[in-house]
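ARCHIVE RECORD
Type: protein–small molecule complex
Small molecule: zinc ion
Source of inputs: curated submission
Record status: active
Notes field left blank by submitter.
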Amino acid sequence: MKRILLFWFLLLSTLLGKSQPCGFDLIQTDRHFYSTIEQNENVVKEWKQNNSLHLQSRSAIVIPVVFHIVWHEEEENITDQQIQSQIDILNRDYNLDNIELSSIADEYAEMAATINISFCIASKFDGTNIVKGISRKHIDRESIGAFNNLYVSDRGGDDAWDTQKYLNIWVCKLPSGLLGFATMPNSVEPYKDGIVMDYRNIGSIGTATENAPYHLGRTLTHEVGHYLNLLHPWGKQEGECEEDDLVEDTPAQAFANLGCNRNTDSCNSSDNHLNFMGYADDACMALFTEGQKARMIECLLALRPQLRSSENCSNCIHQPDLEYSKVSVFPNPAKTSFSVFIENELENDPLFQIELYDPLGKKIIEKQEIKTNSFHTFDFPQHIPSGIYFLLVKSKDVSIIKKITKT
Ligand code: ARG
Ligand code: ZN
Ligand code: CA
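STRUCTURE (tokenized, with ligand):
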């Protein structure tokens, strides 16, 4: 009974705008929520005992993201550019590239961690074609609801891509101005694992422009934090200082700071009001801490281990090659043959695989066990037409797609 009351309390306080409209509080009232968190803590702990964590030396992690745009009115069908603006924001926020950092007080700037995770729009090979990770589905009904049908094509929604390998984000019109919500690891059945977002808070252009103060793409930065096992700084529920977010370097906090509240100290120390996991306005969020970083990386290693070794990205902007490996192809355009050079600065030398696809997605070249830091020359098969071809270069942790023009 207490739980049911709590549910209605949270539902009402959310909808009446006491706190920011958001679905996370609703999910937390789920019966299994606390036991899931506890189980996850144990899995991570055990993982850490068996594997020494090399946070610094690990290679870059790229998370492939699939957007499912489930729309009714034309304006809900947001553009590829708007989606890309969101990917860019994630890449800035998770790589210490966000502009706020230059203007905030030193004591906060010093806390800010480079998470060193990048995001790309996924792509996959479906047997015939390379499919881009932006799926669009028109619905007849005005709203599909955010709980069941949204995740199932046969019921009007859109099926996830393998939720262990891709971060799935469903974008739809959410009821009552909910901003979005995310599932923590192992908290739901796999077909709904991911993030649900209202179409008005994606990125910073298009429908987002009229949606201040949630117009700078920070809702997704925040939701990805939950998806990677972060809690709000005040812990599972607001109200007390003892219960926390299981992260050491975020100060204890009892209540959410809304808006751009700068000087609050709800637990005898200043709150980290700029934290991406709080409820500040988009423009006033700026950082994750080192402790939050460790928790997210541990989540990727121990709780969502297949996510970072996924196959394809169609557009790595923060290319993994920034700090990992660089792929060059030349000449390009090429006539009869081309060479590939995979530069690698890591001490260990991962083996790569190379595949070439024609514009219809048919594989025409494949070569395994390619060594880095040397040249590899390939001949185009005879009689193939000129045009654009796609070279897929992948290792255990990374995959890069390059376009090659055949003349
Ligand atoms: N309140 C929502 C949640 O906890 C999202 C908060 C996002 N905040 C923002 N300024 N965009 O999941
Ligand atoms: Zn939240
Ligand atoms: Ca803390």
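CURATOR ANNOTATION: Confidence is low (pLDDT under 50) at residues 1-18, 315-324.
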